[in-house]
Amino acid sequence: MAIQLHILSPEGTLVRADVSLVTLPGMLSPFTVLPGHAALVTALEEGDVRYVENGAEKRLHIKEGFAEVGDDKVNVCVEA
Question: What's the pLDDT score for residue 30?
Fold first, then answer.
Protein backbone atom coordinates (compact mmCIF):
# COMPACT_ATOMS: atom_id res chain seq x y z
CA MET A 1 0.00 0.00 0.00
CA ALA A 2 1.36 3.44 -0.92
CA ILE A 3 0.75 7.03 0.05
CA GLN A 4 0.26 9.66 -2.63
CA LEU A 5 2.60 12.54 -1.74
CA HIS A 6 2.12 15.93 -3.37
CA ILE A 7 4.34 18.84 -2.32
CA LEU A 8 3.54 22.28 -3.73
CA SER A 9 5.25 25.64 -3.42
CA PRO A 10 4.39 29.03 -4.90
CA GLU A 11 6.79 28.11 -7.75
CA GLY A 12 4.88 24.91 -8.62
CA THR A 13 4.94 21.19 -7.90
CA LEU A 14 8.10 20.05 -6.10
CA VAL A 15 7.21 16.38 -5.55
CA ARG A 16 4.47 14.10 -6.85
CA ALA A 17 5.18 10.48 -5.95
CA ASP A 18 3.83 7.27 -4.48
CA VAL A 19 5.77 6.69 -1.26
CA SER A 20 5.81 4.19 1.59
CA LEU A 21 6.17 6.82 4.34
CA VAL A 22 6.54 10.56 4.88
CA THR A 23 8.16 12.31 7.85
CA LEU A 24 7.16 15.95 8.29
CA PRO A 25 8.64 18.69 10.51
CA GLY A 26 5.65 19.39 12.77
CA MET A 27 5.52 22.47 14.99
CA LEU A 28 6.05 20.43 18.18
CA SER A 29 8.16 17.63 16.71
CA PRO A 30 8.65 15.64 13.52
CA PHE A 31 6.01 13.00 12.82
CA THR A 32 5.72 10.12 10.38
CA VAL A 33 2.75 9.29 8.18
CA LEU A 34 2.24 5.65 7.18
CA PRO A 35 -0.56 4.12 5.08
CA GLY A 36 -3.85 4.25 6.97
CA HIS A 37 -2.85 7.30 9.05
CA ALA A 38 -5.69 9.27 10.66
CA ALA A 39 -6.82 12.42 8.87
CA LEU A 40 -5.27 15.69 10.05
CA VAL A 41 -4.29 19.20 9.04
CA THR A 42 -1.18 20.68 10.65
CA ALA A 43 1.30 23.53 10.39
CA LEU A 44 4.92 22.74 9.58
CA GLU A 45 8.10 24.48 10.70
CA GLU A 46 11.48 24.72 9.00
CA GLY A 47 13.10 21.34 8.51
CA ASP A 48 13.30 18.38 6.16
CA VAL A 49 10.40 16.52 4.61
CA ARG A 50 11.71 12.97 4.35
CA TYR A 51 10.01 10.31 2.26
CA VAL A 52 10.77 6.84 0.93
CA GLU A 53 10.14 6.32 -2.79
CA ASN A 54 10.95 2.93 -4.35
CA GLY A 55 13.03 2.00 -1.31
CA ALA A 56 15.19 5.14 -1.46
CA GLU A 57 14.98 7.87 1.19
CA LYS A 58 14.73 11.38 -0.20
CA ARG A 59 14.69 14.77 1.53
CA LEU A 60 13.37 18.22 0.75
CA HIS A 61 14.23 21.15 3.02
CA ILE A 62 11.35 23.57 3.69
CA LYS A 63 11.08 26.91 5.49
CA GLU A 64 7.45 26.48 6.63
CA GLY A 65 4.08 25.30 5.44
CA PHE A 66 1.15 23.08 6.23
CA ALA A 67 0.07 19.52 5.50
CA GLU A 68 -3.24 17.76 4.96
CA VAL A 69 -3.33 14.00 5.54
CA GLY A 70 -6.23 11.71 4.68
CA ASP A 71 -7.22 8.68 2.60
CA ASP A 72 -3.57 7.69 2.06
CA LYS A 73 -2.82 11.10 0.53
CA VAL A 74 -0.47 13.74 1.91
CA ASN A 75 -0.81 17.21 0.41
CA VAL A 76 1.87 19.64 1.55
CA CYS A 77 2.01 23.36 0.75
CA VAL A 78 5.40 24.86 1.56
CA GLU A 79 7.74 27.77 1.27
CA ALA A 80 10.92 26.02 0.10
Answer: 97
